[in-house]
Specification:
It is a single chain. The chain is of the alpha/beta class. The protein has one domain: Ribonuclease Z/Hydroxyacylglutathione hydrolase-like (Metallo-beta-lactamase, Chain A, 4-Layer Sandwich), CATH 3.60.15.10. It is 36% helix and 24% strand. The chain contains nine helices and 14 strands. The strands form three sheets. A six-stranded mixed β-sheet has the order 1-2-3-4-5-6, covered by helices on one side. Helix 4 crosses helix 9, helix 5 runs antiparallel to helix 6 and helix 8 packs across helix 9. The longest helix has 16 residues. The termini are far apart. The mean pLDDT is 97. The structure holds zinc ion. Zinc ion binds next to loops.
Amino acid sequence: MIETRPIPAFDDNYIWLLTEPPGRNAVVVDPGNADPVLETLAAEGLQLTAVLVTHHHADHVDGLGELAQAFPGLAIIGPRDLRIQGLTQRVGEGDLISLAGLTGRFTVWEVPGHTATHIAFLRDGCLFCGDTLFAAGCGRVFDSTFDQLSGSLQRIATLDPATNLFCAHEYTLANLGFAGWVEPDNPALRSRARTDAARRTHNLPTIPSDLTLELATNPFLRTGEPSVIAAAERFAGHELQGHAAVFKALRQWKDTEYD
Ligand SMILES: [Zn+2]
């Protein structure tokens, strides 16, 4: 059974640390900064055997070189994107990955939208989704399209609702604020906002989330709900047909008027 915990980095990143006790090997996901990873590994006597990378942004990859130096032979696995230096293995849709130190295998999903080559790693009811889906929100669209991000989110929505979702940023309270603009009368959203605000008051992470909670509260996964469609249409000023059109209006609304 793998154990997961967040290593906070920068202002609001989480670098996920995966271990499988009683083994002392460890895997991290998206180390944008090596320092907090090295500190955690040293404090706990762990040996880093592999790194998973979801996409090329600096706050997810800038620790790779230092970690590779500290752990010779380190496996560094990421997408087929030449903007990422230092990968030892480039993977794509449907690839199965075994990692030294962890039993079982991860399945790779290509989830374009935040970036064109963004991937996610799925294993035993856990999805490491980088900046594709956030708790109560989703990533911005950079070198990709709104349609692609909508499609990737719709695909995530098909997973077992019990799936735990490990995103890479603590953006939950801000995202819940925008979700409240979209669905002010959603009781699940109000309840979640209370729970997650209490967690943050005690400096606890709100991640991982799970798909059941996201399906009930994340407007970007609720683009088929009449209340969400109506709110998106009010912003767009015209009728919207289909998930992708509703998604695009919501994303543009948040980008231009919320943050
Ligand atoms: Zn990013």
